[in-house]
Amino acid sequence: MLTDPETLRYSRHLLLEDVGESGQSALKFAKVLIIGMGGLGSPAALYLAAAGVGTLVISDFDHLEVSNLQRQIAYQSSDLGTAKVTLMKQRLEALNPEVRVRSINTQMSESQLSMELILADLVLDCTDNMASRQMINRACVQACKPLIVGAAIRFEGQLMFFDHSKDDSACYHCLFPNSEEPALNCSNAGVLGPVVGTIGTLQALEALKYLVGLPSGINNKLKLFDAKTLEWQTFVINKDPKCPVCGQIK
Amino acid sequence: MNIFVNEQVLTIPVDCNIEQLLLLLESPLKGSAVAVNQHIISRSKWAEYTLNEGDQISLFQAIAGG
């Protein structure tokens, strides 16, 4: 049951047949781990907190720099030098006091991440490097936790969803088996703010759909976003039976 | 035979596989992903996956930024 203030706050959700009171209650009892509080994590965390996801665990080890503000829209110029998770926790709690926010202000080891996954219903990979992406994927495969991956650079975005609670789920490693860092990143190649914001927003959308029980349109799929033409390409990712991460698991 | 690579027509030898195509294009094997007709082909299958006339190949790189 929702309280009267919750009914008011989430009235636009409650009007939706696909969400309704049961969906809103599901959001209230959900725990989502968001790793990375940059350009992807900013809109993702804001939307999930606004939507009433009951527990958010946010992770990042960076402090806010002035070059972040061009795209990391959760932060303000007066916040420079402060840990992003500290700022984000304050921001999310101010946005929605009904939401419990826990922050992790370190670079998580794989074992620490595995512990966090025990408590999580869903994981959003909003990180900015390949090593973290491969580690998060491995841990989510092992823990059978659904993973929504976003990435962006320049005018390009990538979005994918792997429901590792399902036996036939492919994984990030089936798609990108190489763990070397790509030569280009946001620091050396640039990115336009709304490109990374679009992908982070869609990670939040897919998260909400998953939590209220709606099917994802991108399960075992990769969406490529071309921000210049606004065109999307969609690719099916089949589980690679020879994948060293997920191939032997099931 | 003709195939399409990122929507551009390309003439390749018959029985060309994905790995040979990338070598032909001088495209890096590492960090690349390949889809044939909108299906991702895992890296482990590139050497055995023979391309067919008219195949639509999408070739792109992993991006990690966020």
Structure notes:
The complex is a heterodimer of chains A (250) and B (66). Chain A has helices at 4-9, 11-14, 20-28, 41-51, 84-95, 110-119, 130-143, 172-175, 186-189, 193-212, and strands at 31-35, 55-59, 100-104, 122-125, 147-153, 156-162, 221-226, 231-237. Chain A has an eight-stranded mixed sheet, sandwiched between helices. By secondary structure, chain A is α/β, with parallel strands linked by helices. The termini of chain A are far apart. The model of chain A has no long low-confidence stretch (mean pLDDT 96). Chain B has 66 residues and is mainly beta. Chain B is built from one helix and five strands. In chain B, a hairpin with a 2-residue loop joins strand 1 (2-5) and strand 2. The longest helix of chain B is centred in the first third of the chain and has 7 residues, at 18-24. The A-B interface holds A 36, 38-41, 126-130, 133, 150-153, 156, 158, 174-178, 180-182, 184-186, 189, 191, 196, 199-200, 222, 224, 233-238, 240, 242-243 and B 30-31, 33, 35, 38-40, 42-45, 58, 60-66. Strand 8 (231-237) of chain A pairs parallel with strand 4 (39-41) of chain B.
